[in-house]
Amino acid sequence: MNMTFFNPEENQNCVSESDVLSAFKQNREKPNQIQQGMSPLEIADIVSDHLMLVIKQQFEVAKREYLSHSR
To answer: What domain count does the chain have?
Structure first.
């Protein structure tokens, strides 16, 4: 879906996800590696997904350490 803004300074075509329920899909349709020719938004999505994965792993490690020390 393309959106056009009425503000001329922001009059850029934005492509949004065509499937509204795509956030709930289990399988991943977007790439998980940065490749040549990708847009900055695609690269930002990949980097943020990777960072979130690292943060979740760090929280799990901290949770296990906390639970092992609290017993």
So the answer is: 1
